[in-house]
User: Fold these one by one.
Assistant:
Number 1:
Amino acid sequence: MSTQSVPFLTPERYLEIEREAEFRSEYLGGSMYAMSGASRNHGRIVAAAGSALHNQLRGKTCEAAITDLRLAVRPHHLITYPDIFVTCGPDRFFDGRTDTLVDATVIIEVLSPSPKNYDRGEKFLFYRSLPSFREYLLIAQDEIRAEHHVRHIDGSWVMREYSSLSDEIELQSIGCRLLLKDVYERVEFEAAS
């Protein structure tokens, strides 16, 4: 274990570095963490779900952001890149630039092997502090499975799982539907050994 101290970064300094960086990093509590690359399946799921949402949101006040926009969760000192997130109403940005939003209504993460427990746990906890956040959808890339979390009026969250290509997920807060057969259309699963 290294005994070298890691300098604390302010969110503003992180954004200065990140805007010039070749590779993406997430910011959490004063530190930067490199993000791993995505698999082909991950990219296919993000493209399919993002395209479906984009088409369904045409002419509406909500808009989908796919992959390259950052989302800042101020109360938890988190700046991250959700796979897809949807904002409704006027966009609010972290600073004078238009690359880091500070709120979302729907967030979709495609689960990768290493950070999947973080996406389900601590990251979900952090996201819940966003004022407009209503739905969280986690989509597996190694099997047909989605976990849909919905915030109720009393603030409680209810989760429903989907595991069939015939399943349809209704994202009520934005008036959209995702069909798992479409989301997984080109995904190739590894054969069981």
Note: Confidence is low (pLDDT under 50) at residues 1-5.
Number 2:
Amino acid sequence: MTGECNYGGRVTDDKDRRLMAVVLADYYSVSTYEDDNYKFSPSGKYFAPKFTEFEGYIEYIKALPQYPEPEVFGFHDNAAITKDQNSTNAALASILVTQSQAGAGSGGNDDDLINKLADSILNELPPQFDIKEAEEKYPISYE
């Protein structure tokens, strides 16, 4: 029901719908409720916590990795490597397209142009902030 009602209208490819149903079957299964040792992933990090009070669920959520690993979606660790490589390739392809468009008549060599573009991107980024300091200054209460 979750896959068909919540996502069915957004996922139009029949193969994607089948994949989504298979992935959801791991989460919506009898084992999730009946097997005390049922895990959603091979590492055991992802599981349905036992029935507890609100704070118990909050503690479980806090213990999860901030950035989910591919295994929680049923993927091999190489999926993260592939995703990162694709992102890097897309960024570099964009730079090369910009280089070829901006290179005409610029008078500089390719490396200078790319360095200028990289410096321009870096200058537009906001300064990094201290996450620990932000957590201390703005604590989150779950009450």
Note: Residues 76-143 form one domain.
